[in-house]
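Journal club prep, shared notes

We agreed each person brings one worked example of a sequence with its structure written out as tokens. Mine is Acyl carrier protein. I'm keeping it raw so we can talk through how to read the token line rather than staring at a rendered picture. Sequence first:
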Amino acid sequence: MTPEQQTGKAPFDVDAVVDEITRFVAEQTRTKPGADQDLFVTGVANSMFAMQLVVFLEQTYSVTVAGPDLQLTNFRTVESMAALVGRLRAESAADSDV
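Then the structure, token by token:
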């Protein structure tokens, strides 16, 4: 049995996560953000939208974003959010192996 089967989670596909986060940001902001675009510097996102991003990531990817993970650097770009999701899912899978 693979780790994904054991945890009930699909394998992590970073490209699919980038696409899904990009669609969410585009729908919410009516922009077309680049994966490496700084959403805050360019004015696409603000602190209120950052909280929407947290909720979106938690609900969509079954992760918990808390404590030190609530840093702006984790939400600056679509790529950084995808990396955060990947790390949190990997940590969750590792925790469930124990």
